[in-house]
Amino acid sequence: MSRTHDEKTVHIARYGKIHGPYSLVQLKRFLNEGTLDHSDLAWTHGMGKDWIELEHIISKFPTMNKPIEEDVTEQIEKIFILLENEEFDFAHDLISGLKSAQLYETLFDGCEVDEEGGLKLPEWVGWEEKKKTFFLQILAEAPPLEFIEKLRQQTLILEHTLHDYSGDLFPNEIFQFKNLRVLRLWGGNFNSLPHEIGELECLEELQLESMNIEKFPNEFKHLKHLIRLDLTGNLFQCSGTNLEIIGELDNLKTLVLDFCKMTRFPADRLDNLFNLEKISLQGVKLTNDSLHELLAILSKIDSLREISLAHCGIKEIPEIKGGFPNLLRFDLSENKIESLPGFFSDLPNIKWVNLNRNPVHYEINHEYESGDGSSDVDNRSLSSSLSEIESRGRLVKTRDQSISAETDLNEPLSPECESIVSEFESWINEEGSVEFNVELFDQKIDGLISFGDPALLVEIVRGCSITKEGVILTGVHFPFPFWASKLFASTSLDRDARSEWGETGWGGRMKCKEAECMHYFLLRLIPYLPQGSIDDSLRLEEIVALDLCLPGVLPKEIGEYSNLIELNLVKNKLKNLPAEFSKLKNLRILQLDKNELTEFPESIGNLKKLKSVSISENKIKIICNQIEGLEELEILDLSSNALEELPVEIANLGELQFLGLKNNRLKSVPSEIWTLYKLKQLWVGSNLLEDLPDEIYDMDDLQILGICENSCLPKNTEWVLNREVFLSSSTKSTMLIKEKGKELRERIKKELSSWD
User: CA 255 to CA 273: how far, in whole Å?
Assistant: First the structure.
């Protein structure tokens, strides 16, 4: 719960709009500046449902009558100057010496906890980790004011980088958040964890990466709710680490110890982890005996699904008799393994084994390519073991050819592939700067796919990635936008260069033409990549969001992205959607604004899980009957199109809460609309409406109705007075706010008298 929802935030109604919420500190400043007046209408939690004059709210909070002290204002300015000069010690001493509640209120203004439990910091903190460290320190030392205590109690997620942390003692300010569920820390040089770590008993995820930790306190065992533990890049190379304490964490499902400096893991305590599903020790140089002990213990954990021992210097996998009943994935890439153990053939549920960059992988590929069944005994055994794995789906098929999920990246590209890559770079730079030709691009992509070398495809996309928001970022073989260097070279601290990146439209709101060719190319190519040998963000099963810049064409491969939840296709000049679009069965959010669609695409009607569809600013004249299939739809925005009528099937959208129809050519609203009993907002302004159906006044849950710039006016005054209605008359446009005050109510009645 954030401060925006507590009783000390206030909304203001002025000029037909709602402003806020504002904190008490902000209101004081507005009143002092004359921006606000005591007679302004206001509303706050705990004082009824009606809008009242601001002075009545102020009277309930005595501190509101006190202006911000001038000396506090001066000290705040001094503190900010010190922070800009990175004189954190002086700023800390100044704050501690003043001990002013009003000073803390001002410093923490804008700080709140979001819906997920993440801590939103004041604007002055910005994105610098040093300032964030300073903020957490002064928050820990702040007096127990009510809103400060709420910040501490309600913060559930905390992420912080400590690479610039000056001390060698673990930052105790972390422990003020007793209810943390997720704690992610990076960097620092702390040697050991303090015993206070055991006080964070609500933790479910703990990530302590590259902090040079060598040992754990006994209190670590109190983290009984821990589900995921990531200790990547720490130091556990000597005795006395107390690492075996991990065995006390009964609910642990994921354990990551990548690139930790140790040669032995206390595996004998792992058998207590009955819920363990994934363990990763990438880059850990285990001795042969320790490896055998580890695998023997892991084989007995029924819940285990995934093991990663990549880059561990392993030469031989010891034979393990039985076990691993539910193991699905085993990563052994970048080792020195020359032969596979026989027990691999007995793994009942294995689906994926990664042997990239091992001698055994070259032998396997060579045998499959030669088709020679007369190889020596070791190779025949190897082939037999691998065939078992293959039969359970280790190889994936795409289109008319098979591409191994385990592309051999150990060997350099063939001269022919090198030539193709070089030619591709020249081609994409040339074609990317001229008018897009879909036939040329399809020809180039089909040629690369039909060449049949997975290593070539992997090389083409090297460096490419997709952010969690769905933005496709360019790789080493694609042209980089000319303006990018200016963004990354920014030295100004009063703005965040990342926000400018978003504004450029390289996948952001304002679409960038320079990204169109690359997005189209990668969107088509990704489904044909060997999924086990590419960046995780490019794997089809991992792609849940896409924000695309396209040159007027959406390729049919879009149907292969079956895990998509959110798809942004705004401003792409699309005239239609391919039939394969209907395969996106998991899609929840779809944005198609500012395209050139003339009909509501029928393929959308098959996407039963859609929650939000925004398709404004197109040229849509007709809505297909298939729209009734969107049974879970909550938001539908069809504004700024060319609609002349609505199908009655729209009344079947039983979950609809928002319907945007403004700026169309509608002459009427179907009376069946009253069946949308969950509808809260209906916007039909700037149409050709001459009347509203009487049934609309039976929609008690409708909170907002927008009918500006129409020829009709509401007929039911009482109904209007109990909700927000945007309307227009010959001289003005007014927003009516629900209000029970006698004088305002009488004035509204006079204005409405002619409508009845």
Answer: 10
First to last CA, the chain: 44
pTM above 0.85, yes or no: no
Q: Residue 377 is which amino acid? A: V
Q: How far is CA 417 from CA 414, 422, 424, 446, 460, in A?
A: 5, 9, 10, 15, 10
Residue 18 reports pLDDT greater than 80: no
Does 99 have pLDDT greater than 90?
A: no
For 11-61, give the DSSP string: EEEETTEEEEEEEHHHHHHHHHHTSS-TTSEEEETTS-SS-EEHHHHHTT-
Reading the block at residue 180, the tokens are 């943390």
- β-partners of residue 306 are 278, 329
Q: Which residues contact 429 (CB under 8 A, 6 or more apart)?
A: 479
How far is Cα 406 from Cα 240, in angstroms, rounded to an integer?
40
Surface-to-core class of residue 536, CB atoms within 10 Å of its CB (0-12 exposed, 13-18 middle, 19+ buried): exposed
Given the DSSP bridges, would you call strands 589-591 and 566-568 parallel, antiparallel or unpaired? parallel
Q: 3-67 and 415-679: same fold?
A: no
In this structure, is the dihedral angle defined by the CA atoms of residues 701, 706, 710 and 711, taken in order, positive or negative? positive
Domain 415-679 class in CATH: alpha beta
d(Cα 725, Cα 735) in Å, to the nearest integer?
6
What is the pLDDT at residue 452? 83
3-state secondary structure at position 660: strand
**Beta-carbon count within 10 A of 373 CB:** 9
Distance CA 514, CA 59 (A): 58
534 by Cβ neighbours in 10 Å (0-12 / 13-18 / 19+) ranks as: buried
Which of 638-652, 653-667, 738-752 shows the lowest per-residue confidence on average (mean pLDDT)? Answer: 738-752
pLDDT at 413: 80
DSSP 636: E
SS3 letters across 675-716: HCCCCCEEECCCCCCCCCCHHHHHCCCCCEEECCCCCCCCCC
Segment 114-146, tens digit of pLDDT: 888 888 888 788 767 788 888 898 888 888 888
Q: Pseudo-torsion of CA 437, 443, 445, 446, nearest 10°?
A: 150
- Count Cβ atoms below 10 Å from residue 450 Cβ, excluding itself: 11
Q: For residue 29, give both structure tokens.
A: 């400043």
Which residues have a Cβ under 8 Å from the Cβ of 167 and sit 6 or more positions away?
none
Cα–Cα distance for residue pair 148/228, rounded to 1 Å: 29
Is CATH 3.30.1490.40 the classification given to domain 3-67?
Answer: yes
Quick one: which of 313, 316, 391 has its CA closest to 347?
391
**Residue whose structure tokens are 């992610």:** 184
Contact 738, 723 (CB under 8 A): yes
Q: Tell me the per-residue pLDDT of 515-568, one tens digit each, with 9 for 90 and over.
A: 788 889 999 999 999 887 788 889 998 999 998 889 899 999 999 999 999 999
Domain extents in the chain: 3-67, 415-679
DSSP strands (E only) in 433-531: 465-466, 472-473
Compute the distance between CA of residue 604 and CA of residue 601 in angstroms, rounded to an integer: 6
Confidence of residue 488 (pLDDT cuts 50, 70, 90): very low
Q: Quote the distance between the C-alpha of residue 549 and its chain's center.
A: 19
For 661-696, what is each residue's pLDDT tens digit? Answer: 999 999 999 988 888 989 999 999 889 988 889 899
In 78-170, at which residue ranges do the beta strands (DSSP E only) sit? 112-113, 119-120, 157-161
